[in-house]
Design goal:
The chain is mainly α and 455 residues long. The protein has 15 helices and two strands.
Length: 455
């Protein structure tokens, strides 16, 4: 009895030293020790795998898909583009599956990517992963604001061709609407019905872009599908397009999304991933291939600038792209919101004055900075390339393979270990090469365009 009391007291002392923890069993029918979950201001284990699958699908079928014909297919051509997209799909599913299986590694549920890296490697890896993830999400958000601004400008140009509404103005309006949405939606799980709207918006602009592209392609003379540029530039654009390939499928925040899923978290997350990389990728394939088929090497980085059709149809496509970008941005900004809310203890009613004023100031300020950077350098293709190179490659492929290798080093065979090391070396080389190519692309565009350019 004395030993039992002492053990209980020691356990209570340990719990007091930890950040608040919740205990959950992976199977309610089994009386097994639970998995520890760090404290968070946002909701955990509330969403079905189907809702999480839609969150993931919203990310890959966001308005970014309207740019893949120009940023992936044009630099790679038919063979490279088709094979690249299919290979990137398979590799991304594999890498995300490795990461999903580590979600409860070591008896702790790692609800943040940086927590998992810190648990496996230590505090330095925690800080480095958080920095990479912050850069990744900041640039993705900037891309969404540019997309929303481009869609808004396209709508204006359809009805008033006076050139008064410049792209920076449209980006500023898009940033303001994104901030208003961020203030109203307290956390990722609260998106709820908005995911349904997001799916509807995606279907509208994807179907319109697909139908109008096919219509133009049927009526157009033979197109030029040759890869543009000199021999040297082709090398750099091909490498840059590889970064766009991984950018298309990967969020860089899988643990944060997996944190919202119900028990059993690994099994349900795998269902969501299978949904994302089967049903979820079909719209992306259709609109990307159709756009390139219709316009060839002259395809622009925003497909709706190429298509011809009734004004009201094109306006509808651009308006839905604008609205969907706002919802998708909130998904990729949620890790930053969760960090700030948890740090400041923002809990309870979302409408409480303290919570509401905090969101207005902090989220509004964050998106104001993001909007300013988007208007300053509105080069969408550059954002996709540099984001894929410096953060998506390391977060999704290099870290995922190495963390899985470290976590399971005593369970893997020599062949399996060699396989993971080959992946680490290959993607490490590709990350370096893609970074160089993306920086070159930015340097070239900086000479062509000025700050706050009206593209």
């Amino acid at each position: 009895n004395q030993s039992f009391k002492l053990a209980v007291k020691e356990e209570q002392d340990e719990e007091e030293e930890q950040v608040a923890l919740t205990l959950l069993s992976d199977d309610d029918d089994l009386l097994l020790p639970g998995v520890q979950i760090p404290d968070t201001a946002h909701q955990i284990s509330t969403d079905s795998w189907f809702q999480v699958g839609f969150v993931l699908t919203t990310g890959i079928n966001s308005a970014y898909v309207l740019g893949y014909s120009g940023t992936i297919m044009v630099p790679l051509g038919w063979i490279g583009g088709v094979l690249g997209l299919i290979l990137a799909t398979a590799i991304s599913l594999y890498a995300n599956a490795l990461l999903a299986k580590l979600h409860e590694f070591g008896g702790t549920r790692h609800i943040r990517y940086r927590d998992l890296a810190g648990f496996i490697y230590g505090i330095k890896a925690y800080s480095l992963t958080w920095a990479l993830q912050y850069i990744n999400l900041f640039m993705i958000n900037a891309g969404y604001i540019i997309l929303a601004g481009s869609a808004l400008k396209a709508v204006y140009a359809l009805f008033w061709d006076d050139g008064q509404m410049k792209l920076p103005y449209c980006i500023a309006i898009a940033g303001l609407v994104c901030a208003m949405f961020a203030i109203c939606i307290p956390h990722l799980s609260a998106l709820g019905v908005w995911l349904g709207f997001s799916t509807l918006f995606s279907l509208v602009y994807i179907v319109i872009a697909l139908v109008l592209s096919l219509k133009d392609g049927i009526k157009s003379p033979p197109r030029d599908y040759s890869i543009p540029g000199s021999s040297t530039s082709k090398i750099f654009t091909t490498i840059g397009a590889s970064a766009n390939l991984v950018f298309a499928y990967n969020t860089g925040m899988l643990p944060e999304i997996q944190a919202t899923i119900r028990q059993p978290v690994v099994k349900n997350m795998m269902k969501a991933l299978y949904f994302q990389f089967t049903v979820g990728v079909l719209p992306l394939y259709l609109v990307t291939f159709a756009g390139y088929w219709a316009y060839g090497s002259s395809t622009e980085t925003y497909l709706l600038n190429n298509v011809n059709g009734p004004v009201w149809v094109k306006a509808m496509a651009n308006i839905t792209a604008f609205l969907q970008s706002i919802i998708a941005l909130h998904i990729f900004a949620s890790p930053m919101y969760e960090y700030l809310d948890t740090k400041r203890g923002i809990k309870g009613s979302a409408l409480a004055f303290k919570n509401l004023s905090f969101r207005v100031m902090v989220r509004g300020g964050y998106l104001a900075i993001n909007t300013f950077m988007s208007a300053l350098l509105p080069f969408l293709g550059d954002f996709m390339s540099i984001t894929g190179a410096i953060s998506t490659f390391p977060l999704t492929f290099i870290l995922a393979n190495h963390m899985y290798l470290v976590a399971n080093k005593n369970k893997l065979t020599s062949i399996q270990k060699l396989w993971h090391w080959l992946n680490i070396c290959l993607f490490g080389f590709m990350s370096i090469a893609a970074t160089v190519a993306a920086l070159r692309l930015i340097a070239v565009d900086s000479k062509t365009y000025h700050f706050f350019a009206d593209l």
